[in-house]
Structures are given as structure tokens and as C-alpha cells.
Amino acid sequence: MRPRILVVDDQVAIGTYIKAVAEPLGYDVTIATEPRKAIPLVLELEPALIILDIVMPQMDGIEILRALGAMRCAAHILIISGFSADYLESAASLSKPFGLEHVTTMPKPFRTAALRQYLAQSVPVSQA
Q1: Residue 52 belongs to what H/E stretch?
Q2: 79 three-class SS
Q3: Do the beta carbons of residue 10 and residue 26 sit within 8 Å?
Q4: In angstroms, how far apart are the furthest CA atoms of the chain?
Q5: Are 81 and 91 in contact (CB under 8 A)?
Q6: pLDDT-derived band of residue 128, with 50, 70 and 90 as boundaries?
Q7: pTM of the entire structure?
Q8: pLDDT, tens digit, for every residue of 32-67?
Q9: Domains of the chain (ranges plus CATH)?
């Protein structure tokens, strides 16, 4: 079974880019451009990795992190944002009180090599 990745980002281009990088490496990628659909998709797909934009309309990434914590989500979480590194680190630090253990950050735009390396280290295809 291929490891599942759920990308939650209101920018279609980001999800499409991640999918184009990850699928040839052996991952199944689902993209949610509407943040409110993220939690139902987590329940349905049980992804190994959630790539989460922190700044989105209607519902931000912090609200999603809180919901993931409440449901005791064990997935790896990669928080992404075009905002400052301090903003990313603040968002990641909030994940600990929510009970989320495997949280990393990556600024946007990110390089293909960095994304590939993160995928290989956090959710290797061979371990799925």
C-alpha cells in the first residue's frame, strides 16, 4: 500500500506541485483546497502525512491542528507558509499542547529537493 499524503492548501498550484513531486516517488496524494474538508478527509484517508498551509481563508491551520490533536492524529504534519520563519515556528510550537508529536515546518516556496528529502525521511515509501 502506498503511503497517503493529504495536502491542505487553498492555493491549487501548491497542491498540484506537491502531487507532481510525490506521486512519482510512490505516494498517493489527495489535495484539499477548502480547509473545512480537511478533517473529514483525515478520517477517511488516514494519511501518513498531512501537509498543511497555516494561513488560509475560512479556517486557518491552527484550527486544523487543534482538531487533529483532539482526534489524536498520529500522522506526520508538515506546516508550510509563505510567512516568516518565526510565524512557522510559532505555529509548530502550538502543536505540542494539542498532543501532535511529528510536526515539522517548511517555508514556501520550497525546493523540490527539500520536499523529496523530507518525504524520504519522514514517511519512507518502503515502510508503508
Answers
A1: strand 49-53
A2: strand
A3: no
A4: 37
A5: yes
A6: very low
A7: 0.93
A8: 999 999 999 999 999 999 999 998 888 888 999 999
A9: 4-11+21-122 (3.40.50.2300)
